[in-house]
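Journal club prep — side note

Before the paper discussion, L.F. wants everyone to see what a predicted structure for a comparable chain looks like in token form. Sequence:
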Amino acid sequence: MAPQENPGRPQGVPALNLRRSTESAEERTDRTCRLPPFPARTLKATTGWAVNPSPVTSPSPRSAGTSSARGGWIGAAWKRTSPETPPLTSARQIACSDYSRPSSPATGPGKGQQAWGVAATRGGASACAEKEMAGALETLFQTYDLDGSGSIDLDEFVATQGEVVAEDGRQADTSELVAQYLQARAPGEVGLQGGGLDFPTFADWQLRQRYARASKEELAQDCYRLGERLSAKRPQSGQTARSGALSRPLLSSRASTRASARNWPPEVAIAAEREAAEQRAQLNAPKRRFENGGGMTSTRKGFVSKPKEAARDIRAFEKQQRTKDSSSDDEEYMRKQKHIARQREKETMEVNSIAQMDTRSAQLSRQLLENLHERRQALIPSELEACRKKDEEARGQLHELVDELSLRYKRLMVLRGRVTARADPEPLGTPAKLVGVERVEVDLKELSAWPTAAGETCVSQSRSAAVASAASTRSSKDGSFKLSMDVKPEAGGKPLSLALHHRLAADLFRRLGGQGLRRPGLELLPLSQVGEVEAVPGSAHVAVFEDAKSGARFFLPIGKVLQDGESFSGEVKLLAAVVVPEYGTLSRTVFKLKKRESEQDLLQAATSSRAAAAAGALPECMGRTLGGQQVPVSVAAAVFLRLTDATGTELALSQDAGIMVELWCHSLGMRRMRRPPSLWRFDSCLGEWTQTLQPLSANRRELPPPKLPQEEAAQVLEWSATQAKRPALDEGRRAQEQREEVVKLKAAQEALRLQLKGQPEESLADLCICGFDAREAIVRRVRQEIGLQARYLRPPKRLFAGVEPDDEGHGLRCSFLYNTLFDLEQGAARAAADPEVMVTHHLFAAHELLEPSQAIAKDLGLGEGATFTQKHYELAARRVVPHLQQVAAYLVAGARAEDLATGTHLKDVGETAVRLHALESLVSRWIRPRCSGSPPSTTQELWEILTARGNDIAASLLVAGLYQARRDQLAQTRKALGRRDPLLWASYHEVVPAVEGAQSRPQRGQSIAETAAAQLAQDASIKERAQVSLMRQMVRSKMSKPGPRPTMAQVKAVLQGAAEHKWQLEVRLQQARSAGRAAQREAEQAAGEQLAAEKAMAQARQRADPTEQLSQGKAAKAAAARADVAKAEASHFAEESRTLAEALVAENKDGPAQRLLEEIQVSSVPESDNVDEAWEQVLAQLPVPAQEHGMPDILSFSFQAHTEEWNAVALAEAPQPAASCSSKEALPPTEPGYDGDDDVLEYFAPQKRPALPVLKVSSLVAGAFRDGAAGQVATEVACNSLGSCSVSRSEVLADGTFCLFAAPGVLFELWFTLTARSSEPLRFGPFMAKSSDEVTYVGVLEPKLATKAGQWRKTVNATAALIRLPRLEDPAAMDAECCTCKKAGDSSEEQSKVLSSPGDD
């Protein structure tokens, strides 16, 4: 193997010329030993994955001057040489002859070849004897190499050498065998990281051990006999090892070999290994730079049997290099080496720090679990209190750990992952082995389609420049990688896309955002070759392939294959990855956890695990519909295709071509999805699934296209309005708590009145105990002391209406006194320290900025009609963010997760879920659609925004406002386009560029919507869609009864034929009209000639010239005949023109529709144009689910797929509200009052519901992962919905909490990725997801509760939970409060002016 270049050393160091003979190269070659090279043991690629078997390396650079007493090669070679026997050609020369640099006519023989030539010439050994000796050594090497990996590790050496020693009749100690292994391994310095002995090093050790006892012939016979005896003792193991070496999968890691080498604990061996490593490092330190360079002459360059002159030259050369390394001329190299050392030290420190964090997290989690078990066994209050304190202490430390990690990785995104794939299937009942995959391209890209608070709008760049690569790398030998980049959540918070590419695996994408440490689990899905075909440019032939595993069929047009944009001719391979859900767990009912030992059950468990792993390779199931709504999608089936040539180079198809795919899908899951599917494609530039208009056929019946953006927006608005009308799940409990609070307050006030009865009536006339006067006086005082920071302060009066014992403890008094200056100052200090009081200032200030009046809008610089636009949120950002931060902090601090049924506090719901709920509440309050046809935000959209902004609620709310303003702008553009033609419509990805272009190039006198609509109206694809819609409407209007629905191909074919037919009619009409005009001119000309001839004939008659008269008469008759003929032709062409004109009018009107109707009437099956009805018709023809188990091949989907991207049959999820309240308490009326209870309404005014709140589509899943035994830490969790391929992922925080989404009302499983590399993800479930209004709380999950292979659980009914937020008051309700405890006739209008006019302060 040719020596590699040293990147850290400039090349061109002059080499030493050690050849002292004047012989030619040919003469030396004739005299050189020509032994066959050592065969490289490289496994053939059976699966195609790149692996790193133990490399057979070239000899190490050990010189004569640096050979130690451990047995360096030079010393051993000279010691072996004796006068009786000529010097032996070394085994390293025999084995490494094929690794020397090849010669060329220009440069001559390589340095390695020169070295071997010199050694062989001076050795003079016999070629035949050396060949026999080489074969014997190789046979013995294969006997030692039990696994056939090409190297001998410590286990193999100890086992085999122990058998050799046992033949001599003695028992060898393990430490002695390990010492022999280290002695044999040291001279070659092979595999210092655990690679083992290669053949040259093994042969070197055998020659040093056996040469003194025998000649070459005897040595060869001895090696042959020893190898045969060892093989005879273990024929079965040897055969198995060799066969296993040839057939084992390439997805294997050498970690097991290295681990086995480290498992030997003898202190002597460990000390010897450490001492040997130190000696090697000390000896090689001054020359390490030049061991691969042009001027370094050492054993690695090929010198084995060195004469005294060569040894002297080597010592002189190395002395010179040591002097140079220590000089100041090499500062650049030393600087690079120091930088590399610092980076390695930094990496080691970071890895150790992460390990310490994981250890702390695992210890605290174990404490929480132990405390939980103790609390369940506690019987007395003191034990419960002790457990409570321990629990609070451990949770506090976990929260500190989370905060510490967030501060450490502030404004930094660090990715530490490992790319794995599943090895060949293990025996049934055992978990699959995950092994690392090397050289996988890992790219971290920044997605640009994201609005920011700084005014950067989305999709302002072209698609080619939409994604900027932030960082990239390749996975290492064990599949691990690290990426880091600086992020600024406060300056935009753009989401990131992690893309993995391997030529033999489907592309893997992960959507990331925010800051911090991420350790995702990345498992590649291998591509399987489904067929080969010869591509022929221009051919119309279609090759048909079928996947044996999934039964999917692929139709490839072999004439449309391209390579680098040009037609390709040659062998084409089709690689595919088909992902379909596995329904075995859905079709069987299990009543308890049970171990199933049958082969069928174990096979079913393995199939289910592989299906979940395949679904995990899909991109995040977040999609964008045609109308632009960002919603989760349920994937029914997905496919990834790749075309390559014979060498593995990727190919493509022309733009107008695609691969038709027909795959089978179990209808059991499709029935549970409840909505019609459509075709979706993953857009790697935007990092999300996008809905397409490509035709999709179910059981070879084409489904209608998805709903238009207008219809989709109307449906979403209807869902949101219905959600607003539903009572809150906690409304009953909240109203009961309010009533109890008011009852206690009224009772205390009544007691205070009884106490004050004995006082004079005049002193009680102005006394207010309802809290109104106290609020006004104290708020005025707070405003005077704080100023503008309390300008909008308007707290509810109930906060000032409390009653407490007096200082002496004998009576009662109001909590807030205001009669004296001292009491007023004390009350103002208490009010300023109360968050519930001070939050009203920030709440009402944010309300004034986000829903401004005309005066405030003018102060912000907003013109007429500019409110609630992107400009509004950009200008208000600087002022409103501080107020929003205070409101968000108040909501998060007072939030409480509760069991919906019992009201129990759930402490293991993470802060991320609470922040999402708080953001949802604020967005529903202030950010809503301002244009008809514009849908509201969704919970998933807010989740994406919050994650990208680093959980900053204030900044996320402004981004949500920018999103809503853009949706309003798109709705206005669609309306303007519809006014031009009702049949014209545009999708989200078509409208956004048009609006961006209109904003960059505004037209005078036109709005942005009108300018964008004018641009869209000229788009050819939009016009074509309008023609298709018109054609279908015309065909449906001509049907006398419900009939079949024309497919997209039929409509396009008729439209294309109609255009050609119309062109032919227009040409014929033009020709007929031209011919008619020519005939008319001919008739007019003949009539003129006739008139002239008749006039000449009359003149000839007057002159009495009979000859002329006769001639002119003949001419007149001829002209008259020509005129009649021309008139007849003109009449004929005029009639033909009228007929063609009528035919052209009919063609423009309904001619194509009539032809299309005649074509489709061959089928009499009625089909609906409504996509929902058409899908119900398809499902109605399928067997019922009870009869479907074991017959999954009854529903097929056909569609056209593109290569190098994910194609999926999926559907957008729909909200599923709760059927009824889960609370055991009776619900009160929807208003807070009970039977007209005015006391409750006095202190708790009814709150106005948002008209169009944030749409809740999925159910939020929350819980915690705790490990109390092995100390494992989970880094990521994935939610896999059973019956579909949908997967949602989330990070597991350091405190073990997580939250993610699941489709409402379906079964799902949770898969946890652990920090341990060798462990498979843990599976929990299945759980039943709650409604979209509820939180699905799965509780605390422990590894002992995980479902093992072959085990099945009954469905776990997770807890229905909700997150309760503190009450936020409405400004109008605070202005309407008044005093209710004074006598009738006393008005408080003058006092309330303080609150209604804050600007006067």
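L.F.'s comment for the group: The first strand starts at residue 412 and ends at 422. Keep this in mind when we get to the figures.
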